[in-house]
Amino acid sequence: MITCYLVEMGYRLLTxxxxxxxxxxxxxxxxxxxxxxxxxxxxxxxxxxIAFAALKEKKPVYWLLNYKxxxxxxxxxxxxxxxxxxxxxxxxxITNADYAVITKKIKDxxxxxxxxxxxxxxxxxxxxxxxxxxxxxxxxxxxxxxxxPFDKLYxxxxxxxxxxxxxxxxxxxxxxxxxxxxxxxxxxxxxxYINDKNAAEAMxxxxxxxxxxxxxxxxxxxxxxxxxxxxxxxxxxxxTDTYDIALAAEGTDICDTPFDxxxxxxxxxxKLDFTKCFAFRDFVISTNPTEYEYSTIDNTNFRRIAxxxxxxxxxxFPAKFDPGAAMLCQNHTDTIKGFMGQTTAFRKEVIKPGVxxxxxxxKANEARYIHGEYGNGTWTFYxxxxxxxxxxxxxxxPTDLSHYPNSPGYRLILNNVLFPAAKxxxxxxxxxxxxxxxxxxxxxxxEPAHVQTFAERVTITPNPSKxxxxxxxxxxxxxxxxxxxxxIVTGAGTEVYSKKxxxxxxxxxxxxxPSGMFLIKVNGEFAGKVVKN
Length: 533
Description:
- The protein is of the alpha+beta class.
- The protein has helices at residues 2-28, 44-56, 78-87, 96-107, 138-146, 155-159, 184-187, 191-206, 212-228, 238-248, 257-260, 268-271, 323-328, 408-418, and strands at 31-34, 61-65, 71-75, 92-94, 114-118, 124-127, 151-153, 168-171, 232-236, 311-314, 335-337, 346-347, 356-361, 366-374, 377-382, 428-431, 458-462, 468-473, 483-490, 495-503, 505-509, 516-522, 525-532.
- The chain folds into three domains: 2-118, UreE, C-terminal domain (Alpha-Beta Plaits, 2-Layer Sandwich), CATH 3.30.70; 124-421, Class I glutamine amidotransferase (GATase) domain (Rossmann fold, 3-Layer(aba) Sandwich); 428-532, Sandwich (Immunoglobulin-like).
- Helices cover 28% and strands 23% of the residues.
- The strands form four sheets. Strands 6, 7, 8, 9, 10, 11, 12, 13, 14 and 15 form a ten-stranded mixed sheet that branches. It has a five-stranded antiparallel sheet with strand order 4-1-3-2-5, sandwiched between helices.
- The protein is globular.
C-alpha cells in the first residue's frame, strides 16, 4: 500500500508539474503575433478577419504600422489560435519581453512606424441591391472571404435613416446619376437591364420620387450626412465619380430621354457646382446617352497603358505623423498591379486640392487610391472594379479569392474596413491661398475633456494672396507659448524647410517649394498638412 501511495503521490506531483509548465508557457507566451509581410504570412486576407474576431470579443488589437507589412498583435487565447489554424493564417506566440523589443524598434524616431490600438469592431454596411446583375463587387467578396460580418442595405433603408447604426459604409458598383450605369447603348434589350431599370423606377415611386435620379440624389445627400457625422465611406469603380457628379448636379437634369423620359438640361455643364463634391472639380459630364462613361473624371479613355506595365505605387506616409494615411496604405508591397473598371482611375487634373493621393501611376497622370475628410468623417475612393480581374466583363463569374489569399489589391480594401476601429489623431489641412479650406484639429466627441497638446493649440492659416502660412499658438498660462522651430517635410519624410523662431506667431513663405502636399512640425510636433497647387 505504501508503494501504491508513493506512485499515486508521484503521479499527482507530475501532473501538477505539467499543468504548472503549461500555465507558465501560456503566461510567458502571452501575445499572438500575426506577421503581414510577404515572406511569413500565408493568408493576408483572412488575417484581417482574425483581427476583427478579436475586436468582436472586445479584445484590443495593436496594428504595427510599417512593421513586417503592417502586422497585428493581440493577447493570446486558445480560440484565436484555433481560428488562425482553421483559416490558414500564419501566427507566432511571443512573450511580453519579445513584444517590448518590437515596441522599442517601432517607437525609435528613426523608424517609420507606429503602433495603433484598435479598440472597437466597426459596424459595417454594404450598399447593394438584391439583384447584383450584371456583376458582383469586390468588397462583398473580400468581407465574405475574410469572414468579417456585414449588413446589406439599399436606397430605401438609407432614406429611412438606416445608416445611423453603422461606422463604415461601402458603395456597390453603383450609378448615382440615375443613368442606369450608362448601359443603355449596348444592353438596353438585355433582360437584366430591363429588370434593373424597372426595379429602380418602382423603388423611386415607393419612396415618393418621380425620377430615379431624384431618389439617387437624396441617397447621396443622406450618405453625405453620414460622413459629416463621423462615418467612414469607402467606394469603388463607378460609385466614386457618380457620387460626386450627383452632388455637383443637384437641381440640374443631366439625364437624357432614354433614362428619365425627357431631355437633359442643355446648360447642365455650366450649372454644375463643384464646391459640393468630395473629391473632384472642373470635370466635364458626358452628354451622349450611348457612351459608356459619365465624365472626364475617369481616365479609362485617356490612358495608354499595356496590361503588363499597369502598376500603381503606394505612397509611404510617415506613420508617426500621419498614422491615418499610413493605416490605409499598409501592405507587403508598395507596387500594386492595376485593374480596370467603368471608372478605372482618376485624372489628376480634376482632383481637388487637399485630397490625399495614396496610390498613383505617374506616367499615366492618374490617381488610383485617394482619401479625404468631410465634417467629422472620412471618405476613400478606389478606382477599378476587381483587384484580381484585370478587365472584369459583364456577366463574368465572381472572383474566387481562395486563389488570391495574399492579394495586395484586396488588402487595401480590408485596410479601410479596420480604419474606423482606431481613435485617430485628426490634423488640420490647409490649401495654400484658400482660407475656406482651413480645417481645425478635431476631437472625438466621445472622448472626455483633456488638456490640449501644444500641436492642438497651433493654428495654421493660408494667406489668400501670397504663398505664405500664418502659424499662431493659442496661449495657455504656465505652458510653452512660443514657436521655437518650424520644420516642413514631404510625405516621404524629406525635410524641405527648417527655421528657428522665438514668438507666438510666425509667417512662413513657401515660394521655393514645389507643388504637392507637405507635413508641418512646430516645436517638433506634427501640427498639420499644407497643400500647394
